[in-house]
Amino acid sequence: MSESYGRVTELIVGGQTLKTPDLEIRFDVPFDDDPDPNEARIEIYNLSDNTINNIAHHSKVVLNAGYKGDVGTILSGYISFYATRWEGPDKITTFTVLDSEPLDSRTIPSISYAKQTKASTVIRDLLKRGNLSAAALSLVKDVVYTEGLTVEGSVVDAIKNVAADCQTSCYMLKGKLYIRPLTQGDKTNFVLSPKTGLIGSPTFFQDDSSAGYQAQCLLNHRLTTGSLITLESRVVEALLRVRRGRHSSSGSDFTTEIEAVF
Known about the structure:
The chain is mainly beta and 262 residues long.
C-alpha cells in the first residue's frame, strides 16, 4: 500500500536505515510549543532479531516521512524505551522516542546572578552551563532582574522560567530548543488547500489566549510547530502559525493534524 500511494517512511536508528515498503512502519509523532520533550511512538513489523539486537536504549533516532520526491524529517530524538511483542503471525517492535536528547543529567548547583542582570544574559549562561544550543533566541521583553536571581536544578526548567518572565515561549522541536515569541515562526511559503492535501473542512476554535483553526491533511513534513502557512478552504483564507499537531501513520491513514493560530 505504501508503494502504490507513493508513501515513504524511513527510520534511521542503530546505524541502520529501515524503510517502507520493505517493512511496515507505523508512527504517531506529536509536536507542540511547550518545553517538555514530546513522546512519539513508532511500530515496526517483523524486524529480524539481529536488527533488534543492534538497537540500544537512548540510541539516536531520525524519522523521515512523506511522498516520493517530497520527504523530510518529522522526528529527531532518542529512544527512551522499546519492546517486542507478537500478535498472531506478526512480530511488532514498538519504540518510544523523546524528541530531545536525555536532559535529566543537565542540572546545575545553585547559581546567583548579580543585581541588574538581564534575562538574555542569564539564558545564554544557562545554555552554556547545560551544554545546550538554541535554534532560536528572541525575547518579547528582556527583563532586568533588579534584585538579582538565583537558580538551581534542571537547566531546561530554569531557562523555561526565565523565558516565562520575558513572556516568551520555550519549546523543544526535533531535538532543538526554541526560545521565541509565539507570534514568530518559520516561513514555509506553503498554502494548505484541497489541492495540496487538505482533508475535509477546517474547524474554528477560540480559547482564552488565541483563536485559529484545526485542520487535517495528507502527511506533510513541512507542518510543525512554528510553521507559517496560508490556509485556504471554503470557510477560511488566512495566514496562520502552527502551534501544535501530530504526524500519524496507522497502516491505512497517512496524515498530519494541526492546530494553527492567527
